[in-house]
Amino acid sequence: MKHTLCNFIRKAAAVSLVAILLTSLHSFGQATGYAAGRKLLLRDEGLSQLSYVDFADPAASWFVKVPAGRDLQLIGNGLFMIGTANGYEQYEIKTGKKVKEVTSFPNSVMARKLRNGNILIVGLNAMEKKGIVLAEVDDAGATKKLLNFPDYDYVRLVRETPAGTYLVTANKVVFESDASGKITWKADITGGPEHTNAWQALRMTNGRTVVSGGYAASFQVFGKDGRQLSVITGPADIHPNFFAGFQVLPNGNYVVANWQGHGPNFGASGNQVIEYSPDGKLVWSWKQDAAKFSSLQGVIVLDGLDPAKGYTEGKNGVLEPIKK
């Protein structure tokens, strides 16, 4: 009986050990394999470069030179659009080939397709207007609507909310305008230098607004009353420097381009794509190849998106197809 009991205990211990090892290996595989198959569309300001990066198939990656400008957006039919200083350009996702160029909007900052199918051109001191200009144009370039905010001397990305309003980043301020140009909400970015250069804002379903704070090197979350509720940044070893374009993933996480500086020599600086959970935990980061990148400013995680469709931010800031 004693011998049988000892054998039973030894076998049970062995089974338990195997179970523990399998569980550990499974967890380790999940941790190390997270994002291993990701596909990224990236805009590199330092090199004036677009790139497509396929982690699972590096041979499919491509790199092309582009004019200076801001923003990235999937617009359907296998294409994406970027803003330039004179309008916008469109490219094939698969190859990086340019298929359209519009240069009739000098002093523009970014361009983005709206839910109604028109294109929003955002400019500064443009179209014979002082300050921020939001012009809605059709495919032929005809202006359908123009909003002007002459009291502001800086603008980066503008986002259309599901309610049809606009969230505008204007240095240390982010504000919301209704469709007529009336400012209905404001919040102040904290931290960073005087010229913080806040980059992008998205509206969540609960009414909160998430902002990538530029030189404040953080996400800042604001309530319906404009009061700051939380700040997300760090850790120091990934060198948070300037939080630029970002995307909310379907799981609620934020993926942001962590820009490092102007010019071609910043490829070794920082981890330039960072992912946080909504409660501020670092989930994942990517250390770029210093020989191929300098300073990333825009990112789209392509996983789960259909290249045949155009996308804009919907509920909770997650990208959803443009129906028109």
From TrEMBL:
Keyword Signal: yes
Key words, A-Z: Signal
Signal peptide (UniProt feature, chain positions): 1-31
SUPFAM superfamilies: Calcium-dependent phosphotriesterase
Entry-linked InterPro entries: 6-blade_b-propeller_TolB-like (IPR011042)
Protein name in the entry: PQQ-binding-like beta-propeller repeat protein
Record organism: Hufsiella ginkgonis
Lineage: Bacteria, Pseudomonadati, Bacteroidota, Sphingobacteriia, Sphingobacteriales
